[in-house]
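Annotated sample (chain length 174).
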Amino acid sequence: MRQDPLSAGIGDMLQKFRKMESWMRRFGIPPVLARMPVWVLCLHYCLMMRGKTARIAKVAERIERWLDAIMALSRQDDSRTELIDMDRGMRNDIESTKRTLLALREISLDVGTMFCSIGFHSRLLDRTQQGFLNVVDASCATATTLQDALEAHDTHALLLLRQMQNHDGERTPA
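Output written by the structure step:
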């Protein structure tokens, strides 16, 4: 399986920084200063992940609004037959979004593992990772609920349309 470029890049940098840290310690640089490049990389990664977390939270809000709209359509008699996803395009788009989110989740876990593999531990990294994972997991759960709501809405709407068609067919004299 092909490794993600972000993970590979961070992994390569971590290994180089680890070697540089060893080299700096051999030349008498205090361990705290020798570890500074890894801390800076971790800080940069955490800031980047906080931005991604905020953007994913906005996507989750949009999914939530769509879910609310579908639920509202399903409750109203006069609009139960509107917005039928006949070609499953909307559900496929949601599935694609979920796959992307899950791929990002895996990358995040891989990067956390890479930091641990060089003996680096940080509460900031742990909190950032956990916040990201929580938002991704909640977003995927909401997206799945939306897919289920769309399926239920479409099934019910098609049933209503068939009933209306049958009812109209019975009225029309041949």
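Annotation: The chain has one domain: 46-171.
Annotation: The radius of gyration is 25 Å.
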